[in-house]
Design goal:
Bound molecules: zinc ion
Order of helices and strands: EHHHEEHEEEHHEHEHHHHH
Largest sheet: 6 strands, mixed
CATH topology of the largest domain: Elastase, domain 1
Strand content: 5-15%
Distance between the termini: 25 Å
Length: 344
């Protein structure tokens, strides 16, 4: 129920590469191995989700006023052992992957603090822990329920996963969701879970770059696409502004009515992604200033709702928009336009 299968690259994309006879054997092997590992790590995440639920039930939020979160980085050195060896001073490390992971995790913490007044993943100052250089040529990044894990990629299909700042924001947001709405990972809730990670991952990238909704590219994973993936015509994993984009590795449905039972959440996140992007672009300005605030409030003030449906979430954002921005009807109108476009 509370499992959080939160790899950035969907299983079927890796399987597709593993079975692509036009690819070099070593790339097919790296893709197949990444698919196998991602699946094996899933059981770990189920356990972490259950643990979170227990600790929240016991009122573990007494540390609400803890200081800014500590950011730690570990080096797996190509092994699959977590968390790996601590990197003593990641901020000044000569290993650019360790350094980027530290800088961007610190950036995500600052984003949540400055924009949403949230203290770390759990809003109680939880240490933000990352492991880099996980496995050999591992083509994925994930939140495993307790920490971040980054593969180096094979360098051809995917690059070092810490290069994607939206990827880092996406994965850490899975932690935020785990500690707020506690969405499951199937059905509507699963699609919402994935979509919230894309929304906040994209907003983080826009916030870092100081972009408004019109200049943002709304692509997820554009910076981790390797030369071979690009030569095949792929520019990103997902396109929030046009989920059905054929140049996205995982092109998605755009309409709520197109979702089918058992669909991978990386696909069912298409309609809510488009709704969010449309609301932001319709309103204009910086995505995190108004529409982002509405989505954040819907995520964090609705209690735990592991099986929340998309219509329920849409209704909640409409309600929050009219409350938070009661004197600005344009905000609710933009939110409404986004959901209506996807059939909600
Ligand atoms: Zn995810």
């Amino acid at each position: 129920m509370l499992s959080c299968t939160c790899c950035i690259v969907p299983q079927d994309v890796l399987n597709r590469f593993a079975n692509d006879k036009k690819l070099a054997p070593e790339l097919r092997k790296a893709a197949a191995e990444s698919a196998r590992l991602s699946a094996a790590l899933r059981s770990l995440r189920v356990q972490a989700g259950a643990l979170t639920a227990v600790s929240q039930g016991m009122g573990a939020h007494i540390a609400e006023l803890a200081a800014s979160p500590k950011v730690t980085v570990y080096d797996c050195k190509g092994t699959q052992t977590l968390p790996g060896t601590p990197v003593p001073s990641p901020k000044t490390s000569k290993d650019s992957t360790a350094q980027t992971s530290f800088a961007e995790t610190t950036g995500v913490a600052a984003f949540y603090k400055k924009v949403f007044a949230r203290n770390s993943i759990d809003n109680a100052g939880m240490t933000m822990m990352s492991s880099v250089h996980y496995g050999k040529h591992y083509n994925n990044a994930m939140w495993n329920g307790l920490q971040m894990v980054y593969g180096d990629g094979d360098g051809k299909l995917f690059l070092d996963f810490t290069k994607g700042h939206d990827v880092i924001g996406h994965e850490l947001t899975h932690g935020v969701t785990q500690h707020s709405l506690q969405l499951g990972y199937s059905g509507d809730a699963g699609g919402l879970n994935e979509s919230l990670s894309d929304c906040f991952g994209s907003m983080f990238k826009q916030w870092e770059a100081g972009q408004d909704a019109h200049t943002a590219d709304w692509l997820i994973g554009a910076d981790i696409m390797g030369p071979v993936a690009k030569s095949k015509g792929y520019s990103c994993l997902r396109n929030m502004a046009n989920p059905a984009d054929k140049s996205a590795l995982a092109a998605q449905p755009t309409q709520y009515g197109q979702l089918t039972p058992g669909m991978d959440p990386h696909y069912s996140s298409g309609p809510p992604n488009l709704a969010f992007c449309t609301a932001c672009v319709t309103l204009g300005g910086k995505s995190w200033e108004k529409i982002g605030q509405v989505w954040y409030a819907a995520l964090t003030t609705s209690g735990a709702n592991p099986t929340m449906s998309m219509p329920q979430f849409a209704a909640r954002t409409r309600q929050v928009a009219s409350q938070l921005f009661s004197g600005q009807a344009v905000v609710l109108a933009a939110v409404d336009k986004g959901w209506k476009l996807v059939g909600l």
